[in-house]
Amino acid sequence: MQGFIHKAASSILFIVLVVQAVSAYKKRPEPCKRLVLYYHVLFDGTNEANATSAIVSNITKLGDFNFGQFVVFDDPMTDDHHLLSPPVARAQGFYFYNMKTTYNAGFAYKLIFNSSDYKGTLNLMGADIIAQEARDISVVGGTGDFFMARGICTLRTDTFQGNAYFRLQMDIKLYECY
């Protein structure tokens, strides 16, 4: 009888450990750092003095979804909705429209921080499927206060005023912080 009880207890312990391991595996870790920033884009092709983005190739778009356009940007980032708030960072990089059937852009850029709160860069890249309410791009590295950071940036279109101005909310969650 004692052997049976020992085997049953061992089996129950094994099942409990497996359930705990599966639960731990499915549970997402908490971010070690989180930032919510607003990315302001001034872009209409007619106001060069105020533009923060420029089309550098395929000025004549192909189709209805700007397929083939390549845009370089140097946009202000604020910690609130207001364009005229002091910038906390600059977003510098490029995106390109890469679908003929819907608006979709590939992004590669860095956020450059130089303030009393943060110094350094965050590097981001990924697909911006514009029709989706929320879309994730990867945080693939960083420097300074963000040394070797890894995580996810969730983009949401916060406001859209045609080609003249749009604003994205960037919810940055870092899961590797050093």
Description:
This protein is mostly beta strands. It has an eight-stranded antiparallel barrel with strand order 1-3-4-5-6-7-8-9. A hairpin with a 5-residue loop joins strand 6 and strand 7. The termini are far apart. It folds into two domains: 28 residues; 146 residues, Allene oxide cyclase-like (AOC barrel-like).
Q: What's the arrangement of secondary structure elements?
A:
Elements: H1 2-26, E1 33-42, E2 53-57, E3 70-78, E4 89-97, E5 105-114, E6 119-128, E7 134-142, E8 150-161, E9 165-176
Antiparallel strand pairs: 1-3, 1-9, 2-3, 3-4, 4-5, 5-6, 6-7, 7-8, 8-9
CATH architecture descriptor text of the largest domain: Beta Barrel
The top-level CATH class of the largest domain is Mainly Beta
Q: Tell me the count of domains.
A: 2
Strand fraction: over 45%
How many helices? The count is 1
How much helix is in the residues? 10-25%
CATH topology of the largest domain: AOC barrel-like
Q: Let me know the largest β-sheet.
A: 8 strands, antiparallel, barrel
Number of strands: 9
Succession of helices and strands? HEEEEEEEEE
Radius of gyration: 23 Å
> Can you list the strand order of the major beta sheet?
1-3-4-5-6-7-8-9
Alpha carbon gap, first and last residue:
54 Å
Estimate the global geometry from the Cα principal axes: elongated
Unreliable stretches: none
In CATH terms, the superfamily of the largest domain is Allene oxide cyclase-like
What is the SS-derived class? mainly beta
